[in-house]
User: Which sequence fits this backbone?
């Protein structure tokens, strides 16, 4: 259990490549923070710096009340779950779980107790004497979790732990990891490139891009009010529609209420309506390009008239629409997200 | 896969059988020759069927020897060969494992330079550097010692290279997981890397044991005390060393006995190979 304070952390590689630039983050005790971003955004580097697997170029890292910049990973009291699990192939599951404890000189009886506890919690007790290669992907994932669990560390670090699993198992493990983390109340830092994982698992999530924090907030804050064009495009699926303000002006559609400096307007596929609402709204005429039924919901791809702007709409069920059909979309003014293209930031 | 072609199959089998015959025939002759009495060979006709003196010949070679014909009992020579082969095999593996570990996992100054330095020694087998090596060993007073027999042959680029290649296939996360688990470099080496390399170590052991066992020129050069003679050079001395005609029946018995230990090593290690191969990850 510990608070983790990341203060102005920088990572510059030997070749001069800046992977992380001035990231500051205050993680409360027991909190689950998810770092999310596209590949190469520095999220893994940041996590590895916290783990002690990468050196810190500058800045201060505090775990608990110790500055740990110079400490070895083992001395930082953290446990890490790796993307490819990194189980020791020649050891049994029991051996894998016990190895870290053995190295710390934990008494034999204690090791046995903690291994049994963790194995029971993760439902891998019956595999304890198997080698990792005799386990399925999901079971290996549990063993990797168990290896972190038995250590009873101050913090868990997860490096894209679910990306090697198939979709169904991923959802299941996502729920389990979250429940486990809540139950244990261990401070956690979780890296993923999957925005859905980030939204569902995080107490607070951090969107990283190009080594800097784009936005930090609770999942709903980030979703409801993305701070930048990048965050707007990254969080939420299908991605937020972006409409050039010049297009709206040319067609006399630009709402008068938009703040100054706005030249890009975002609207989520879920917020677009097929019928005019009573509240003030924006009406966007267009042509259906493609209708994509997806079970409980459907995605309609539309090109706006006279501008070629592609728009995605998400509606419940299967709407009455055919490809090539004319259709008008309605966006409530409250659902519009104004941005400035040059700064990439929100303007309101 | 080749089509089911009768004549092709037949042809392939004939070639293979001929090949096997060429390899096996000399061994067969040696075994047969070791079961005849000494006079047989002086008549110039090589018998191809077993004789009746096998027991006698082997007991003579093992327990009595023919010292006046340059053939002491071979137990001592077998032991010397064994010590030499084991020292070379174990020494090479130990040094190669450690140097490969250093080259792959540590960033030190001139790392690449050292790697190439080791690599270049591949071009310098014992025979090429034999004179300077002899000088060094002589100056160090290691003539007629086990150390002199084995140490100059221990440095090995081949094994270092093999282990380096293997270590580079071990995922980096394995090292990182071990670091998080509190294992220092040596612990990682001992607990993770060594067990993962067992198959490679076994393969190296077989190759190096046979390499050491078959050394001929080097022991011939640095041993003058017959209590340090190895079996392979001993055979040569039995042929040329005596006052009389070579005692072919005894020489052949010695040859057969000298071939046994490498065969045993292969048979024994083969089981480890199979075990290692079937148990390896992926």
Assistant:
């Amino acid at each position: 259990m510990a608070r983790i304070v990341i203060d102005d952390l920088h990572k510059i590689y030997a070749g001069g490549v800046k992977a992380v630039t001035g990231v500051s983050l205050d993680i409360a005790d027991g909190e689950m923070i998810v770092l999310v971003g596209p590949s190469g955004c520095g999220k893994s580097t940041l996590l590895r710096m916290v783990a002690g697997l990468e050196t810190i170029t500058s800045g201060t890292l505090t775990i608990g009340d110790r500055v740990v910049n110079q400490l070895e990973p083992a001395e930082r009291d953290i446990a890490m779950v790796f993307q490819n699990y990194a189980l020791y192939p020649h050891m049994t599951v029991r051996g894998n779980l016990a190895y870290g404890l053995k190295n710390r000189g934990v008494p034999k009886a204690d090791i046995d107790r903690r291994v049994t506890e963790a194995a029971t919690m993760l439902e891998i007790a019956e595999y304890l004497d198997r080698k990792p290669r005799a386990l399925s992907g999901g079971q290996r994932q549990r063993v990797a979790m168990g290896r972190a669990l038995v250590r009873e560390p101050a913090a868990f670090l997860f490096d894209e732990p679910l990306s090697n699993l198939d979709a169904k198992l991923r959802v299941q493990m996502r729920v389990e990891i979250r429940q486990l983390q809540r139950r244990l109340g261990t401070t956690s830092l979780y890296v993923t490139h999957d925005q859905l994982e980030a939204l569902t698992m995080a107490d607070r999530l951090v969107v990283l891009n190009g080594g800097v924090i784009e936005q930090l907030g609770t999942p709903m804050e980030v979703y409801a009010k993305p701070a930048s064009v990048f965050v707007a495009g990254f969080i939420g699926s299908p991605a937020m529609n972006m409409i050039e303000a010049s297009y709206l002006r040319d067609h006399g559609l630009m709402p008068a209420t938009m703040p100054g400096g706005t030249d890009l307007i975002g609207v989520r596929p879920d917020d677009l309506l097929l019928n005019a609402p009573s509240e003030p709204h924006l009406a966007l005429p267009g042509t259906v390009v493609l209708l994509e039924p997806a079970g409980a919901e459907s995605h309609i791809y539309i090109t706006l008239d006279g501008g070629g702007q592609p728009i995605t709409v998400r509606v419940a069920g299967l709407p009455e629409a055919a490809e090539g059909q004319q259709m008008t979309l309605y966006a409530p003014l409250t659902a519009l997200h104004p941005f400035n293209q040059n700064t990439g930031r929100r303007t309101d | 896969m080749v089509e089911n072609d009768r004549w092709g199959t037949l042809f392939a089998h004939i070639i293979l059988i001929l090949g096997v015959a060429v390899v096996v025939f000399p061994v067969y002759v040696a075994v047969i020759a070791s079961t005849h009495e000494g006079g047989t060979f002086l008549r110039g006709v090589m018998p191809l069927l077993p004789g009746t003196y096998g027991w006698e010949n082997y007991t003579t070679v093992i327990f009595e020897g023919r010292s006046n014909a340059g053939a002491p009992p071979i137990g001592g020579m077998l032991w010397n060969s064994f010590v030499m082969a084991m020292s070379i095999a174990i020494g090479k593996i130990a040094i190669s494992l450690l140097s490969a570990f250093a080259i792959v996992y540590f960033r030190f100054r001139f790392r690449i330079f050292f790697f190439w330095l080791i690599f270049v020694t591949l071009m310098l087998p014992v025979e090429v550097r034999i004179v300077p090596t002899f000088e060094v060993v002589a100056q160090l007073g290691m003539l007629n010692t086990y150390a002199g027999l084995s140490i100059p042959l221990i440095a090995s680029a081949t094994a270092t290279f093999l282990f380096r290649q293997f270590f580079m296939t071990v995922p980096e996360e394995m090292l990182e997981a071990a670091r998080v688990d509190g294992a220092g470099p040596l612990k990682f080496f001992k607990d993770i890397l060594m067990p993962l390399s067992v198959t490679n170590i076994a393969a190296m052991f077989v190759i190096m044991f046979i390499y050491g066992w078959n050394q001929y020129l080097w022991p011939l050069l640095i041993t003058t005390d017959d209590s340090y003679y190895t079996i392979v050079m001993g055979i040569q001395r039995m042929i040329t060393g005596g006052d009389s005609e070579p005692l072919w029946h005894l020489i052949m018995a010695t040859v057969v006995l000298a071939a046994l230990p490498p065969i045993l090593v292969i048979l024994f290690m083969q089981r480890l190979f199979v075990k290692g191969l079937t148990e390896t990850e992926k």
User: Anything to note?
Assistant: The interface with chain A takes residues 171, 173-174, 176-183, 187, 191-192, 195-196, 279-282 of chain B (CB under 8 Å).
